[in-house]
Amino acid sequence: MSKTNPGRFFEDYRVCQVIRHAVPRTVAEGERALYHALYPARHALYSSDEFAAASGLDGSPLDDLIAFHIVFGKSVPDISLNAVANLGYAEGRWLKPVWPGDTLRSESEVIGLKENSNGKSGVVWVRTRGLNQMDEVVLDYVRWVMVRKGDDAAPAPEPVVPELAKSVAPSDLVLPEGLDFLQYDFGLAGEPHRWGDYEVGEVIDHVDGVTIEEAEHMLATRLWQNTAKVHFDATFREDGKRLIYGGHVISMARALSFNGLANAQMIVALNGGAHANPCFAGDTIRAWSEVLDKADTHAPGVGAIRLRLVAHKGAAGDHALRGEDGKYAPQVLLDLDYWALMPK
Amino acid sequence: MSKTNPGRFFEDYRVCQVIRHAVPRTVAEGERALYHALYPARHALYSSDEFAAASGLDGSPLDDLIAFHIVFGKSVPDISLNAVANLGYAEGRWLKPVWPGDTLRSESEVIGLKENSNGKSGVVWVRTRGLNQMDEVVLDYVRWVMVRKGDDAAPAPEPVVPELAKSVAPSDLVLPEGLDFLQYDFGLAGEPHRWGDYEVGEVIDHVDGVTIEEAEHMLATRLWQNTAKVHFDATFREDGKRLIYGGHVISMARALSFNGLANAQMIVALNGGAHANPCFAGDTIRAWSEVLDKADTHAPGVGAIRLRLVAHKGAAGDHALRGEDGKYAPQVLLDLDYWALMPK
Amino acid sequence: MSKTNPGRFFEDYRVCQVIRHAVPRTVAEGERALYHALYPARHALYSSDEFAAASGLDGSPLDDLIAFHIVFGKSVPDISLNAVANLGYAEGRWLKPVWPGDTLRSESEVIGLKENSNGKSGVVWVRTRGLNQMDEVVLDYVRWVMVRKGDDAAPAPEPVVPELAKSVAPSDLVLPEGLDFLQYDFGLAGEPHRWGDYEVGEVIDHVDGVTIEEAEHMLATRLWQNTAKVHFDATFREDGKRLIYGGHVISMARALSFNGLANAQMIVALNGGAHANPCFAGDTIRAWSEVLDKADTHAPGVGAIRLRLVAHKGAAGDHALRGEDGKYAPQVLLDLDYWALMPK
């Protein structure tokens, strides 16, 4: 028997199955520094222990998206090694900050299965949880992927399609214990705009662009121990291109969004997201955001803002999202919907 | 009103204005490791806690140029986002070591303004200070930049041109508390040459060369949270090239200078500097140094040496600096003038 | 006299000479994170403090190959700056784990010399030791290199060719104090295969491939403070290519071997190794392993497995090693022979 992991195929999943993912990971100052080298990340709460302490935290946690990437990366060998496409995200919540020295592991529960009409693949819905060394859930989200069948003759399972919330309700947002923006220093944070200054429907162009290199996306993707071949092996795809991990685009766009959203300090929920088109080295990533909703929170001085974050490789200021056919425009890379915390 | 930062234009500056720069940054072991991955840095005092302890310090501080890059990077969004050119440095002094866990912020005072005769830009002189979490100044330097006007019709300010020292006087050098080179281990440091072995006027060719990659200079520049578009966005310049952050060349040249100056352990003053020509990916950087001056210090066994450090992309051993017209030769990238500390 | 280091030539070595290498290095969390960004390293014991603690250790040590690269890198300026080729390794043993915060230095003893018949170069055998800040030897290995003569007229030394063990005897393996695999969690480690599941002669194809970039191998090689020009300066070789540090290939292949050997947690001995052909940016590295031997150990639940690890740039599944002429096939990059520890 071969000792290498061929990955699971569509017929290998069962609803209610819980898969414990391998290779726990201790994260520390090194991951933080690399995150800042890989992305133009400047949100002050993740950059300065002093700023975080003034916001009621015990120092600066690791960036919210580091937690996401580590938890996601661990699920790849079990969930998406034979994936044709990463279709969507829903009901994601950050439940506990991740601190330097924490050890993360993750597990996924299969919550839905539906074979495609072509009989060659199907959609798998999983709820993935990231846990720290005290078995506290730090992050929880649903994603669904299209997975190939290993044996086309395998019978189709009873279809189960989970009902997923369109977005996380404001009352379900979990805020870091102690968070308090009453002493918030807008000067140090980089922009004067507070929660009250943003209007639903407002669109913010984040101005900057970053041209992507092979070495960088591979460094990032390996750092999260994401093993999908297509990101690393230039001989894997017929066109000789390495597909860039979608999370690299998420982090790049989120970091670019500092320019205009410097005070949207912490991501607390992932309402949805689509990797609209593939991204390759040489593309120049730009981003814009739209304010989708706002909500109050119980934490002193803290408001919640729901944002659509769009990354694209088009010209600066190009805010096209979908064509007349309703499909994403070809230059759109990412359409992400999340809740962040801002000072009021 | 747009929420993104367009940067300041020439007419936005006033003499005596103090600008507090955004996004404080906690630096730690991760930044140190990345510095060693990005540059061939081998000065023992910044490489080994044991070596630093034997030199009277509480372990190894972060590299002197890490402090410079972090402090400089914070000033970019306020000072040089609309800069046409970074014209010079003067009166720079390292006043306190930066330790892992320190949080740095920076602020700049406008000390000079002079509109150019074309009426479209002007020169802004600022004194930038880096401060740690105890509000101690760790680094202080003057730089001047040419900045575009946003509105050509804006009236020219009264010209104020600061008088700047040609170099920091030896009596003004500040040495790290406790520094002592009496037990200095030349074997571990890598070279036998002590302060007394260098003569004013002596030229040292540093032999090695490093060919520069896009991914590396972008990792470095982001690590210092320097946001200037021209370093990251290949569509920004008409020629499609990303201009390499001048500080990347400084760090590369300083690291290359180990070969011949392994005992010039710590930079304590920046007397002047010019980024003579732009540097692009694919260039192979080489360096040579000239001993400009020497001075004694009050610290046991410690001498000061004033060095010109020249980085170029020419052939090995090419020490041309200026052409017959007095301008920098086209292959010269950097002409830096600094004081360093050496064992006597 | 030039102050730069020209490196030693063949005639500069004497049998029994001990060379203390320069620039001690404190290693910490930053090096660990960079290792995980540079290589797809997933062995759980080097990824998770919790997993390491459950294996009887005081947290996760730095990767075994980080110790190797640091110790090796320090020896380059003294041993291989003028090397024509790195010919082999033998009798390598990891004697103590390296922990975050440790400071490593290294020294080499010349144990053999033999001039080549062409009179222009010769083979130098050295035993290199890495020591921590408590002067404990953490790693010890023999390597031999072909070194150019600086002066062809220098007389040939009396040839001394050391007798080297074909492999480290199982009874000579040194295990980390306290190591215990009785509570080993195969689920977290990533694969179910235990020591008893591997048979001598078994070949494992590690499936994955990684296409190599210039920026990555230079980041790695600098991180280990390896200064050999040929890795960094694209103008050094006539073909304009930068030769990739052989250790980069070792680490890449070892990390790729996770897929099929996830439980071969720690390298404890290096029996031999050859860098069969040069590796350049753009090559896609793949790996396969062959089980050469197995041995029991005195540690609870711990077995030793002797593995041949072959890295190649050929097509997936290409296990050709040598041609009919007995020479390495042109696509083979590395042929490494080591002992690792596995749960029984």
Beta-strand residue percentage of chain A: 25-35%
Task: Sketch the topology of chain A as an H/E string, one letter per element.
Answer: EEHHHEEEEHEEHHHEEEE
How far apart are the termini of chain A?
60 Å
Number of strands of chain A: 12
Give a description of the structure.
The structure is a homotrimer of 344-residue chains. By secondary structure, the first copy, chain A, is of the alpha+beta class. The first copy, chain A, has one domain (10-150, 164-174, 185-343): Hotdog Thioesterase (Thiol Ester Dehydrase, Chain A). Chain A is built from seven helices and twelve strands. Chain A has helices spanning 29-38, 49-54, 64-79, 186-189, 214-223, 246-256, 258-261; strands at residues 18-20, 25-26, 83-94, 103-115, 121-131, 137-148, 203-205, 210-211, 266-275, 284-296, 302-312, 332-343. In chain A, strands 1, 2, 3, 4, 5, 6, 7, 8, 9, 10, 11 and 12 form a twelve-stranded antiparallel sheet that branches. In chain A, strand 10 (284-296) and strand 11 (302-312) form a beta hairpin. The longest helix of chain A is centred in the N-terminal third of the chain and has 16 residues, at 64-79. The mean pLDDT of chain A is 96. Chains A and B meet through helix 1, helix 2, helix 4, strand 8 and helix 5 of A and strand 2, helix 1 and helix 5 of B.
